[in-house]
Structures are given as C-alpha cells and as structure tokens.
Amino acid sequence: MRRMPRAALWLPVLTLSALAVGLTTAQSQGAAPSGDPLAIKAGPPDALHGEALTGSCQGCHGPMGHSQQEDKPSLGGQVPSYTTLQLAAFRAKLRPSPVMQAIAAQLTDQDIVDLAAYYGQQTPRGPWEANPALSAKGQQFYNMGAVERNVTACVVCHGVDGRGNNELHIASITHQSPKYTLEVLHEFKSVPDYHIAYPNAMHIVTAQMTEDELSAVTAYLSSMGSSDMDKASK
C-alpha cells in the first residue's frame, strides 16, 4: 500500500486560519475565533522566554535551530509566522508526527509565539555540501523558472535570498538538508489541488518540474551562498 505523503494529510487544514495564526500583532484585539484549532491568542513575542523553552528542541533541531540531521529541518532563521503555524498544526494534531504532536501539546499559545520569535532571530545555519554544477543549474531554475512551460520562478515568492516572507507566511527555504528539501518538494508535487493559495502555488510549480529540476533546485537551496556554488555559477 502506498503511503500517503505527510503533506497531503495536513495541508488542507491550513485554510482554517493561516492568517489568524501568523498575525501576532492583532492578537490583542479580541479572543481567537471559536472552534478554530489553529488560532493563536498571545501577548507580544518574548524571544528570551522562547530560548528557555528550546531544551527539548535541540536534540533534533540543534542549538539555535541549526540541525545537523539530514531528516530534521533547521529552525534557526525561519520566519516566525511559518513556525507559529506549524507548531499550532502539530498541537492540534492536524500535521502528523507523534513526537512533534507530543511536544506541541505542552505548549501554550504564548509559548508557541515566543519559540517562533526566538528561532526567527537566530542566524540561519550554514550551507550543506552539494555538487557545484548541479547547484548552478538549480540557481538558474530558481531565478528564471521555465518560461517555455509557464513554470513560475521560485524567487517570485521566496525572494532573492530564499528567506521567505513573514507577512505572507512564506517559509524560509535555504540551507535545509538536501534529503529533507527533496522530500518536501516531492510532497508538494504529489498533493492534490486544495484551492488554498500557498500549497496550491507550490503544487502547480513542482507538478511541472522534472526530477532533474527538483534535484538541481534542492542542491541550490541547500548550498545557497557557498563559495563553490558561486564559482560554478560564474
């Protein structure tokens, strides 16, 4: 039996309150919407308190969110609104992961906001090693897309530096391990159309990408900014 991609299990629920979860500046204006499992109501983010909560995170995600494990994402430098949304989804058991569900279940709304703030203030981890020539091909696709197939360039949403957009809940996607990055891209490629802006955009793009293009973009994203990659692109 083919295992359903994990993204296919949790992406549909993001339509419930993607905006409400990320906009912490509006949290003081009233109670969270009734029945919304992803809604967050908290005070101003406290990064120092968030740091104090990271003891149980470091085993997988590393000190300051710099993961050294190929199957675990780095959290350092991630946009706060995206981290907030993921923790809320884990806590509501709408995103699968027994470990993360158990950890998130112990977090209050304020804890989630504070953790997201702490990781958002950290310097992103350094690049992973990747084939320079393959990275250069990925850089071209990232910046140009595939015009002849109407495939949008990644830079349009994720920016020149790949660091996403906090206001739009667009994730930072650089310097994750090649293994983790490729797995996530495959998940977006395989999910159906849910009529939800962000996952739909990712699905539309990745569904049209070849395996060679996915591998090249993965190499570029994981090694972006490395000296070897920069030399290969010149």
Automatic annotation (TrEMBL):
Gene3D superfamilies reported in the protein's UniProt record: Cytochrome c-like domain (1.10.760.10)
Annotated localization: Periplasm
Recorded superkingdom: Bacteria
Signal peptide: 1-20
Region (Disordered): 58-78
Domain Cytochrome c per the UniProt entry, residue ranges: 45-123, 133-225
Pfam families documented for this protein: Cytochrom_C, Cytochrome_CBB3
Keywords, sorted A to Z: Electron transport, Heme, Iron, Metal-binding, Periplasm, Signal, Transport
Main localization category: periplasm
Protein name: Cytochrome c4
